[in-house]
Design goal:
Chain lengths: ~575, ~230
């Protein structure tokens, strides 16, 4: 079996992973960086981000305002020291991309143009049409080609991390193309594997968003943080879940119910459609529940109206919205409403890190959606996540590189590798006549959507948890139908499902324990925010029977929690 | 709900056998070919192998040949095309398995284009007007789905041709208002396997799902090379 060595191993090649790899590679040319991804970099889900990336660049803006908007958006659960670090580094990261050729939209003077976004008190969201994530991903990927010391492992799947005495030392992975099993020794590693959308039935996320990195870290003892906070984006296409960007509202679009009423005025009199996402999603949910939605074959929906923006604005600033409306919803947005419903969109929680992107395991770092710093708290503001990938990706890359320069490799033993090889090949591949993974996957999606969704209650969460435990039990009977070694997606999907079940358990468990409503976590049985008991992060640790939770106080520097109004 | 018949060209690399599988899939008005393939994978045949992710025509994973035309499966409606539907892997590439093709050659050509800003020194402040940006908007929209390679007759008989997407990316950096690598880039364009191998069929531009116009971009580079040789 091959051993591969790299000073820094980056898992995941989206915005965070590519940014981390570039930072580590440029810090010292002698460092060897391994960039492992289960897909080619340009397929990473960053590509689907549309609206833009936030930073304080305009002369009318200031860091304090961006920080406060973010803290308020988080329903005061964000760590304020982390938020301050985030906003102060954000401008440099966006300008860096400009130097690397990203075609940011320009204003009249030829500088970067900003648009309005939900929860942001001024225009500070920088964009390239409504394909900002696409441009960021391709710019970073193309830039990464310049660094000879980055070695890519495209279409490799990481199956486990190897940790000794709380220090990272290696990992195991499968080369998907030929099914061969390998292990890596690394001085440091960075988890940048993105989100978890595939746990839900209706999601804006791609098929690859299966929470791999969160499960990898959790299994070796790293805690997951804020897992109960799952963001539902207000405007997904019914049934398909695909995203209609918030930029549609940022550019002036309205939300209308079946009375032709801009109902957001009753929920957020000041910010209307541009309130925080959790507020808008619950409002839509409520309108539909009270019978003011339009009838559709995927359930009732609300209308997104961009007709008044005119052809010019739509074509130039919202071309993807137009394309999505026409191709996937069959409507012409020049003169028809776009049908929308909330769709699962983003995971606020993730692998617990501090603002240096360090996890509690020495040499192990995390960044982007897979990580939880936390700057997003109970609800992320739109256009903060692309920036988060850049800011904490580069911090993680720098710190991991420094760690690698100061430490030596630790040897990965034969037994450690063989144990994992047996788990996978004897435990999964050789099994015959079991059940296909898709049966369990569909059930899991239904449970998460119905019982761990926008509106939650204790009874549903208890039921969901026990159903997930049963699915974990049933997972033991799953077998691989496709016995081929080459590009075996049947097998890879089983490994992903195994990760997803662990992540689903942590989300549901954390949601059950948080007996209050805050941001995206809304408990019908505890509808009020409870700062006295729950102004804390829940850290979920793996333990033998059920997860174990430790509480971590929120870091408050400047802003005392107040009632959140938009 | 109606039923559609789908034929898929299969390939098993271990036995080197190729065959056609036939599936019947329930479809509705808005079912995409990708939805049908995912249905087959989950409900009928776990061995069927294909790449996909975003479902919204931006990640570029699900390029395949559908009824003879290179298309993205995620934005091709079953109801709008001829049935029975015939699905094949992208033409002109080596097949790894079923609908999964080997991208190595394409990734290699991308790298050869030096797809990053080349400058002597870092710019301090960047002032670029929208109109200066205009020339790169079209070529920078490429999602690397490789449909243009499957459509290109030249690449079909000569894999040493760098091909439409890679050359279009070269053009994108050549036209970038802050790039200073013009001479280096023109040299790459002038390589014997680059722009001069394009015989201007235009099929790349017809196939592009993002309206990138590689055919035009390549002819522009021929023109630039021609003009610079006159100096």
């Amino acid at each position: 079996m091959d051993k591969i060595r790299a000073d820094v191993i980056v898992i995941g090649a989206g915005a965070a992973g590519l940014r981390a790899a570039i930072e580590a590679a440029s810090m010292n040319q002698k460092l060897k960086i391994a960039l492992i991804s289960k897909v080619y970099p340009m397929r990473s889900h960053t590509v689907s981000a549309e609206g833009g990336a936030a930073a304080v660049i305009k002369e009318y803006d200031n860091l304090e305002s961006h920080a406060y908007d973010t803290v308020k958006g988080s329903d005061f659960l964000a760590d304020q020291d982390a938020v301050e670090a985030f906003v102060s580094r954000a401008p440099m990261e966006l300008k860096n991309l400009e130097k690397w050729g990203l075609p940011w939209a320009r204003d009249e003077q030829g500088r970067m143009a900003a648009r309005a976004f939900g929860g942001m008190s001024v225009k500070r969201t920088f964009f390239a049409a409504d394909k900002t994530g696409f441009y960021i991903l391709h710019t970073l990927f193309q830039r990464s080609i310049l660094y000879e010391n980055i070695e890519r492992f495209d279409e490799w799947f990481v199956t486990s991390l190897i940790v000794e005495n709380n220090r990272f030392k290696g990992l195991t992975a499968i080369d998907i193309k030929n099914g061969t099993f390998h292990y890596f020794e690394g001085k440091a590693a960075i988890i940048c594997t993105g989100g978890i959308g595939q746990l839900y039935k209706t999601t804006s996320n791609g098929a690859i968003n299966t929470g791999d990195g969160m499960a990898l870290a959790y299994r070796v003892g790293a805690p997951l943080k804020d897992m109960e906070f799952v963001q539902f984006h207000p405007t997904g296409l019914p049934g398909k879940g695909l995203l209609i960007t918030e930029a549609a509202r940022g550019e002036g679009g309205y939300l209308l119910n079946n009375q032709n009423e801009r109902f957001m005025k009753r929920y957020a009199p000041e910010k209307l459609e541009l309130a925080a996402r959790d507020v808008v999603s619950r409002a839509i949910f409520n309108e539909i529940k009270e019978g003011r939605g339009f009838k559709g074959k995927y359930g009732d929906y609300i209308g997104l109206d961009i007709r008044h923006l005119g052809k010019d604005v739509i074509d130039k600033k919202l071309p993807t919205v137009k394309e999505m409306a026409e191709k996937y919803a069959g409507v012409n947005p020049y003169n028809e409403l776009i049908p929308v419903r909330p769709t699962m969109h983003y995971m606020m929680g993730g692998v617990h890190t501090n603002k240096e992107a360090e996890t509690p395991i020495a040499g192990l770092y995390a960044a982007g959606e897979a990580a939880c710093v936390s700057i997003n708290g109970a609800n992320r503001l739109g256009s903060n996540s692309l920036t988060e990938c850049l800011v904490f990706g580069s911090i993680a890359g720098y710190n991991a590189a420094r760690f690698a320069l100061e430490h030596d490799y630790l040897e990965v033993s034969k037994e450690e590798v063989t144990r994992e090889e047996n788990r996978i090949f004897d435990g999964l591949i050789k099994k015959e006549n079991g059940i296909p993974p898709s049966d369990i996957l569909y059930e899991l999606k239904d449970i998460m959507e119905e019982k761990v969704g926008i509106l939650r209650n204790g009874k549903d969460l208890e039921e969901a948890l026990s159903s997930i435990m049963k699915l974990k039990e049933r997972f033991k009977q799953v077998s691989v139908t496709d016995k081929s070694k080459t590009y075996n997606t049947d097998f890879i999907q089983i490994l992903e499902l195994d990760f997803m079940l662990d992540v689903a358990e942590t989300i549901t468990y954390a949601a059950l324990k948080r007996k209050e409503s805050r941001g995206a976590h809304y408990r019908v049985d505890f509808p009020k925010r409870d700062d006295e008991h729950f102004l804390v992060h829940q850290l979920v640790y793996k333990s033998e029977y059920e997860p174990r939770i430790e509480l971590l106080p929120v870091v408050i520097t400047k802003w005392k929690p107040t009632e959140r109004k938009y | 709900m109606t039923e559609a018949k789908i034929f898929v060209r299969r390939y098993d690399p271990e036995t080197k056998k190729s065959w056609i599988s036939e599936y019947n899939v329930p479809v509705e008005g808005d079912t995409m070919v990708l939805d049908a393939l995912v249905y087959i994978k989950n409900k009928i045949d776990r061995t069927l192998t294909f790449r996909y992710s975003c479902r919204m025509a931006i990640c570029g994973s699900c390029g395949m040949v559908i009824n003879g035309r290179p298309m993205l499966a995620c934005q091709t409606k079953v109801a709008e095309i001829r049935t029975p539907i015939v699905v094949e892997p992208l033409y002109n590439f080596d097949v790894i398995k079923d609908l999964v093709v080997d991208m190595d050659v394409f990734m290699h050509y991308l790298k050869e284009m030096k797809p990053y800003i080349i400058r002597k020194e870092e710019p301090k402040e960047i002032i670029v007007k929208s109109e200066q940006q205009e020339p790169i908007i079209n070529p920078s929209a490429c999602i690397n789905c490789m449909l243009c390679y499957a459509a290109c007759p030249v690449f079909g008989y000569d894999q040493t041709f760098k091909g439409p997407a890679a050359l279009s990316l070269l053009y994108r950096y050549l036209m970038d208002p802050i790039d200073q690598g013009r001479e280096e880039r023109l040299k790459i364009a002038n390589d014997k396997d680059a722009v001069w191998k394009c015989s201007f069929w235009g099929e790349c531009s017809n196939a592009c799902p993002k309206n990138v116009d590689p055919a035009f971009n390549i002819q522009r580079m021929k023109l630039m090379l021609g003009l610079s040789s006159l100096k």
